[in-house]
């Protein structure tokens, strides 16, 4: 367990390395404006919407929750080829500064360590646009535009909620009931003991619930019991069978 003074020293070092040119509110504004404009333009193209086409919204959200869970679990908390920088910034910086005992940012400059890079909104658009083009051919432009707008909205919601969780709990945002409830499930993820196994959805814990990674004391005990019950791959012959 890292001692508090060591954690504070490491925190000062990490925050001290935030570039001098960094402007926190510009970092927040650029993706917020770009994502909102793309979503707004996409929605403005919707014409004669049917009830069936509206299913594009919940289906896109479901895929987004799954993508969020998978990336958080398998990219942000594991060293992967070509993705080491993302891992280091998340687990070795973000999770060092913010633990379950101290989640609050102390300076706007710490948004550098909370928000995705400002250009990430462009990468999301580039990733989603080909799927929107295919959907336009297969299911019509309304479905494509709804998927695009929902994807942009989900990314911005992820960013805004994550920022909200790391506001001081006594602040106006920190006192909001919805933020307090969602922050608690995210706070559990920031427990160094739990972060690699539990609560990977940052927005709404849809896939944590579906895939059994939503933390509770009972689930943790059950998982540990199952782990202890598994035979070791290096175990010798069974004492009663000799095999």
Overview of this structure, please?
This protein has one domain. Helices cover 60% and strands 0% of the residues. It has ten helices and no strands. It has helices at 4-16, 24-44, 56-74, 84-97, 120-139, 141-165, 172-175, 177-189, 206-210, 217-229. The radius of gyration is 21 Å and the shape is globular.
Q: Main attributes?
A:
243 residues, mainly alpha
Write the layout of secondary structure elements.
Layout: H1 4-16, H2 24-44, H3 56-74, H4 84-97, H5 120-139, H6 141-165, H7 172-175, H8 177-189, H9 206-210, H10 217-229
Helix pairs in contact: 2-6, 3-6, 5-6, 6-8
For the biggest sheet, the summary is: none
Q: Indicate how many domains the architecture comprises.
A: 1
* Structure class: mainly alpha
Over all CA atoms, what is the radius of gyration?
Answer: 21 Å
Find the count of extended strands (DSSP E, 2+ residues). Answer: 0
Strand content: under 5%
Kindly state the mean pLDDT as a whole number? Answer: 91
By DSSP (H or I, 4+ residues per run), the number of helices equals 10
Sum up the overall morphology in one term: globular
Low-confidence stretches: 239-243
Q: How is this structure best summarized?
A:
This protein is mainly alpha-helical and 243 residues long.
